[in-house]
Amino acid sequence: MPVFEYGDVRRLDLFSGMSDANFTALMRGAYVQNFPAHVELVSEGEPSDFLHVILSGSVDLFSEWNGRDTSMATVRPISTFILAATIKDAPYLMSARTLEKSRIALIPSQDVRAVFDIDSNFARAIVTELAQCYRSVIKAQKDLKLRTSLERLANYLLRKQKHAGGQPVFDLDFEKRRLASVLGMTPENLSRAFKGLQPYGVSVEGNRIMISNQADLERFAKPNPLIDDHSS
Fold this sequence. Notes:
Layout: H1 6-10, H2 13-16, H3 20-27, E1 31-35, E2 40-42, E3 50-56, E4 59-65, E5 68-75, E6 79-81, H4 83-88, E7 95-98, E8 102-108, H5 109-118, H6 120-146, H7 149-163, E9 169-171, H8 176-182, H9 187-196, E10 202-205, E11 208-211, H10 214-221, H11 225-228
Antiparallel strand pairs: 1-8, 2-7, 3-6, 3-8, 4-5, 4-7, 9-11, 10-11
Helix pairs in contact: 3-5, 5-6, 7-10
């Protein structure tokens, strides 16, 4: 891996507290590769040979079963995936594919585990990241199990609006078919849900969302930090 790429990886919380010697040892077998859009990087069930660090672009984590597939999460720079499989030396539980042209660092999983055993700061950072991932999964399950499809869509739009700076007009990150998958809905149900939110001030043109009555939408959605705040 080129030395000039080290800085981006080193700044991640996961690696920032490591000793210089251990970080250098970890990066010795790593390399960076450019991938075009729509390339499958890993497949669920395969051995977890590498820890991936996305430096640019975006990656879709997804799963398939019995002729059906669903998007689990979107990974953006600069972050890792899929850490749990690397630490456990277990098969990937999800597949990953690029959504756009992406630049990704690949760190051999065996090196990650070796440094985990000798660098206490690195080990604590890994435990912290895995705990954060666990909490995010619990919140996603609560969103899916406790809310109707209309409520899930309303709260998703409020979260995206917040990330877009709180403006009443903002764009979705990806196409509606993938959004339906993320929310556990069919494309047809998503279309009906958008219509169902019209009385609460939501209108949509393509991928552009307009919220004309913020208070009504929030009263309906009832956002809850114990479900919707994925930062803690």
